[in-house]
Amino acid sequence: MNSPLVDSHCHLDFPDFHGREDELVKAMKANGVDRALVAGVTLERFPGVLALAERFPGLYAAVGVHPDTQEGQEPDQQILLHLAEHPKVVAIGETGLDYYRLEGNLEWQRERFRTHIRAARRCHKPLIIHTREAAADTLQILEEEGADDVGGVFHCFTETGAVAEAALALDFYISFSGIVTFKNALQIKEVATWVPLDRLLVETDAPYLAPVPHRGKLNHPALVRHVAEEVAKLRGISMEELAQATTANFFRLFRVANNA
């Protein structure tokens, strides 16, 4: 395979990887993975995210506060816009809604999501969407806030085909993680067969969700190859075609030059 792959979503700043960054980037290159996007989850952790993007040419950053985060600094538009000015920051996120882990009145989560969308529209950078057991509200807020103006990606896709269709209609891409390699992930496998090739991405979400045959172990960007292989197999296309398409999609969505 000549075309490189891209891990469109990982968390190389997490403690699991401290002190191993050079080793992991070297492993990426050895496995034909040229680039990776490190997604922010809190403002307090963002300096570490940005430091990785500045240190390694093939790494990029996204700034945002994960919907599960209840402690730490709450983002406002001005903070997000200021941090997004850095040339290696290519997206706003991850952001979205998560009704799986949290209960009670979650209006604060929805307001935080709206803040991210408004910031993304103001700086003209795409959104990285996390949604879990909250698809209807996620789609409604994206539509209400005009998120199709900037688009983005539904990362680590675990929803139904109907949700994928609605996301695509809002000019979003669909990204598949190691879950697509799991034997019982039939719904996700089915969606992976028909998402338009020019709207498809692959990711690890490292350190989580290591793909088969590494399931249960620490995930890292080099393993995105297994995700790509599974998606290519499900679609009945070659790895070369899948790699070419997903890498081109990454460049287009995140406005990254292929020589940057």
Highlighted features:
TIM Barrel; 8-stranded parallel sheet; 260 residues
What's the arrangement of secondary structure elements?
Elements: E1 5-10, H1 21-30, E2 33-39, H2 46-55, E3 59-63, H3 77-83, E4 89-98, H4 107-123, E5 127-132, H5 135-144, E6 152-154, H6 161-169, E7 172-176, H7 186-194, E8 200-202, H8 224-235, H9 239-253
Parallel strand pairs: 1-2, 2-3, 3-4, 4-5, 5-6, 6-7, 7-8
Question: What would you say this structure looks like, in words?
Answer:
The chain is of the alpha/beta class and 260 residues long. The chain has one domain: Metal-dependent hydrolases (TIM Barrel, Alpha-Beta Barrel). Helices cover 38% and strands 17% of the residues. It contains nine helices and eight strands. It has helices at 21-30, 46-55, 77-83, 107-123, 135-144, 161-169, 186-194, 224-235, 239-253; strands at residues 5-10, 33-39, 59-63, 89-98, 127-132, 152-154, 172-176, 200-202. An eight-stranded parallel beta sheet has the order 1-2-3-4-5-6-7-8. Helix 4 crosses helix 5 (135-144). The radius of gyration is 17 Å and the shape is globular. The model has no long low-confidence stretch (mean pLDDT 97).
**CATH homologous superfamily assignment:** Metal-dependent hydrolases
Task: Report how far the terminal alpha carbons are from each other.
Answer: 21 Å
Measured as a percent range, the helix fraction is 25-40%
What count of domains describes the coordinates?
A: 1
The stretches of 5 or more residues where confidence is low (pLDDT under 50) are: none
Largest beta sheet: what is the strand line-up? 1-2-3-4-5-6-7-8
What is the overall number of helices?
Answer: 9
Portion of residues in beta strands equals: 15-25%
The number of E-state strands comes to 8
Largest sheet: 8 strands, parallel
Name the shape in a single word.
globular
Q: What is the quaternary state of this protein?
A: single chain
- Category from helices, strands and their pairing: alpha/beta
CATH fold name? TIM Barrel
**N-to-C SSE string, H for helix and E for strand:** EHEHEHEHEHEHEHEHH
Rg for CA atoms: 17 Å
